[in-house]
Every structure is written in C-alpha cells, then in structure tokens.
Amino acid sequence: MSASSPLEGTVSLVTGGGRGIGRASALALARAGAAVAVAARSLDQVEGVAEEIRAEGGRALALQVDVTVADQVHAMVKQTVAEFGGLHVMLCNAGGGLTSGRLIDSDADEWTHTITLNLDSVFHCAQAALPVMSEQRSGKILVMGSGTGHTPTPGSSAYAAAKAGVSQLVRVLSQEVWRDGIDVNEIVPGPVATELTKDNFSLGEAPALSKMERVKAPEEVAELVVWLATRPPSGPTGQVFSLARRAL
Predict the structure, then answer these.
(1) CA 83, CA 35: separation in Å to the nearest integer?
(2) Nearest 5°: phi and psi at 111?
(3) Following DSSP, what letter does each residue of 108-164 receive, concatenated?
(4) What one-character DSSP code corresponds to residue 85?
C-alpha cells in the first residue's frame, strides 16, 4: 500500500451514503484506494455518489437498501462481496432523529421506528458483516454515534436511547470479536452542516447549536473515518472518537 492509497485492495461499505457524512465518507474512502459500496434508500442519490467515485477513477457499487430490514442488509453485504471479493470496512452511518418533544407526548410508532432506524440497523449491519470479516481475520466496523447518546437531551428520548444503545453495542461487540482481528469503534461527530441539519445551522453561521461549538463540514468527519479505517491490526477498538467540543 502506498501512502497516498492506504486502502488499496480493500473494500468499504457505507450505509446512509447518499448525502452528508455518508457521501463524504464514501468519497474519502475511495480516494484512499478502497472499492466502495454506497447504500441508502434513495437509489438516485447513491448512484450519483457512485458515479462521482468512478469519475475519479475509483470502483463503486450503488445499492438501494432499507437498513431496518434484515434481509435487505444481508443481501447488501452479499452483493458487495460478490462484486468486490470481500469486506474490510463497514461504516454504519444510516440513522436520524424522527421524533422530538416530551416522552409523554410521543407517538409510540414513531418512537419505535427511531429505535429501529438507529440501533437495530447497526445490529443488522454488524451481523451481516461479521461472517465475512471473521473469515478474513480482519475488519473495521465504524458506527456513527451522537453526543445525544452520552449526554441527556430533553425532548429526544427515542434518539438518545437508540444512540446510547449504539454506544454500548460497540463496546460489547468489540470484546466479542477482537480475537477475529475485527475492530469496532464509535464516531461522535458533533454538529455537522448537512441537508438534514440545514434548518438548525450551516457553515459560517452561529445560530442554535453552533453557539455551543464549531459546526463542521461532512468532509471533516470523513477524515476521521479514513483514519480509523487505516489503523493497523490490533488498533483501537471499543472506543469513542469524538469531534465534539463538549466532554462525553
């Protein structure tokens, strides 16, 4: 591997890869030399990202996937392996906060769906990826967490509970699979200017969350994704890597 292409010969899979942090991470992983499968519910978005990668000389596969559906997630991994011959980095990025307001006023179905989207999806992705990575005796599972999963935030009970579960899942899983050469880590990006957050803040502005800390671009989070993806065997595992200013 060269210094400019540290992921040459490896395969990455990015969920929620059509926009924001996922898109930036897919592009960054490809620029580091990886073949990249880009997955999301919106096929046109991931096809656009895959085309960007190919236009730069990389290899990419666009997959339309609902990560809350186990069969679709397992099929996603099988298609990736069939196309590229392995799976070395799984970035579990898909998620989002679907509910807001006090728990007493919450809709039960929306609350459950938020848990499913943010926590169950990570379970599905890890369970699908682990057999491949275990056979390879190597792999990185990176999970996009949130400061909300570490610090209580009134009005976000479902999202906070899901992300807290994600954080603990990372720790438990890391202890289960380290003997197979698999590292599992959580990324807490802090506030990031994306399509989903544009109503709250944007780069260069100072409303809402940006008053508490600097708002980052998706590309800054992608740099951390690549750094973790390129750690050597027996690198960090079961850890939280935070770009947020506030202590977790």
Answers:
(1) 10
(2) -60, -45
(3) HHHHHHHHIIIIIHHHHHHHHHHHHHHHHT-EEEEEE--GGGTS--TT-HHHHHHHH
(4) S
Strand order in the sheet with 182-188: 60-64, 35-40, 11-15, 89-92, 139-144, 182-188, 240-242
H runs (alpha helix) in the chain? 20-31, 43-55, 70-84, 108-115, 121-136, 157-177, 218-229
Q: Which residue has the tokens 């006090």?
A: 102
* List 36, 114, 139, 159, catalytic entry: 159
With CA atoms as reference, report the closest residue to 236 among 142, 123, 136, 106. Answer: 142
Predicted TM-score of the model (pTM): 0.90
AA letter at 181: G
Strand partners, 241: 187
Output helix, strand, coil percentages for the chain, rounded to the nearest 5: 45, 15, 40
Q: Count CA atoms closer than 13 A to 119's CA, side-chain side.
A: 19
pLDDT bracket for residue 140 (50, 70, 90): very high
In the numeric block, which tokens belong to residue 50? 């895959």
Is residue 26's pLDDT more than 60? Answer: yes
Residue listed under structure tokens 């800054």: 220
159 is catalytic: yes
Of 146, 131, 156, the closest CA to residue 93 belongs to 146
Q: Mean pLDDT score of the chain, rounded to an integer?
A: 90
Reported as a pLDDT band with limits 50, 70 and 90, residue 206 is very low
Tens digit of pLDDT for each residue in 45-72?
999 999 999 999 999 999 999 999 999 9
Task: Report percent pLDDT > 90 for the chain.
Answer: 71
